[in-house]
C-alpha cells in the first residue's frame, strides 16, 4: 500500500510540475497578450491543482495529518484564475478597439482592428437591428 501511495503522489507532483513548466514557458514564449493568457490560466492552474492534490495526499496518507490549507488554496486558485483572465482579455480587447495599444501579429493571426466585427467584448454600443440593440425596446 505504501508503494502505491508513493507512486500516486510522485505522479501527481511530476504531472503538476510538467504543467507548471509548460504554462510558464507559454507565458514567456508566446508573442501576443491573448496567447500569453493561456499559459498561466490553463496549464499552470492545472499544474498547481495537481501539486496541491499531491500535497494533500502526502500529508493525509503518509503523515496522518489533515490540513485544509491546500484545499483553500486550490479553491481560491480555481475561482480567481478564470475571472482575472477574463478581465485581462476584456481590457486588452478594449485597448485594441480604441487604438490605445498596438501588438505584433501572433501565431493565431493579426489582432482585431478597430472597425472589425470583433468588438463584442468592448464597451461599444450594439449595432442597429441586432438582438442586443432591440432587447430593451
Automatic annotation (TrEMBL):
Keyword Membrane attached: yes
Polar residues composition bias: residue spans: 125-137
Membrane-spanning ranges: 6-28, 40-59, 71-89
InterPro entries noted in UniProt: PhaG_MnhG_YufB
Residue segments, region Disordered: 101-137
Record keywords: Membrane, Transmembrane, Transmembrane helix
Keyword Transmembrane listed: yes
The protein's name: Na+/H+ antiporter subunit G
Organism, as annotated: Sphingomonas qilianensis
